[in-house]
What we know:
With 191 residues, this protein is mostly beta strands. Helix content is 9%, strand content 36%.
Amino acid sequence: SILVQGHCADGVTQIEARAVPRQGYSGTATDWVTIATNPVGGDFLGHLSVSGGWYDIEVRGYQGTDLIPGDVVSRVSVGEVFITCGQSNSANSGETKLTVNDDRISANNGNGGWQLANDPQPVATATGGSPWPELGNLLVEHFDVPIGFYSVGWGGTSVTQWQPGASNQPNGEPDGTLYAHATTTCLVFEL
């Protein structure tokens, strides 16, 4: 399920939401679902169950029986997220910068946002190419759902530095830093 959260005007008695697959992309439309009744102070929070796909999430309200026009959150992705780590090519040290062929392939920017997964990958330490755009192209073609990458590669590291609690971390980072970056969990992403 995805989280639907927002703020509405005073007097709104019910908030509803639905998922509408984006034109030409995978996903299963949902009916209107009640997200909140009588939101306190106008704040609402609820969940909408959706299958994998690329959606626009429509939200509307009611004041009694009167429909209040709502809003749309576009390009909401429900798919697969891959956390990638390692050295060299995983950290953007490849000679050729690659690009994605589909807008549903995204990369986490390390600050809570997402962008197209064109090289160089954000967060990883170098500025060249990586295998992740091409892997994203293959995965989105096979699974037909959005694909996200969180690339935490760090050039010049060894396998032992990626072990839990490992010492000798790059740039004097605390013990286990690389392992901690690699075990970050991402559940749902939005472009």
